[in-house]
Amino acid sequence: MNKKTINNIYWISTGLILAMMLFSAASSFIENPDGAKMMEAMGYRPYVFHFLAVAKVFGVIAILTPGFPRLKEWAYAGFIFDLIGATYSFYASGFPLKDWAFMLVLVALLACSYIFYHKRLKLTGAAANAKQV
Q1: How far is CA 91 from CA 41, 42, 97, 122, in A?
Q2: pTM of the model
Q3: What is the mean pLDDT of residues 75-85?
Q4: Labelling 101: which of 21, 26, 82, 111 has CA 20 to 30 A away?
Q5: Transmembrane ranges (predicted)?
């Protein structure tokens, strides 16, 4: 795979997943009766989603900021924990598959972004430098 293709796949997958994370963060602060019912059905209080929303914004900033490879790894880890936790919460609360299947698409999109982040590092030789940090 050439450098241009790797960069394109990285930026498309990263842009989509980060846009979804920002959308999710913003919607946590908007009053929504359906959202309140969903939180209640899963047994969560609103402050949990507010905390996660702030963490998502920081994660987006970490991934978009050049450098700081360890911080990016933590941001990717936080996003995967968030997505897997949300998916399991939907499943364990008895929501039908149609309500949480999109979460699996987001997990795959995040994995694509992460894989191509590392492919880009290898292309630039930054992977060797990142391991020394």
Answers
A1: 11, 10, 8, 37
A2: 0.86
A3: 96
A4: 26
A5: 9-27, 47-67, 74-94, 100-117
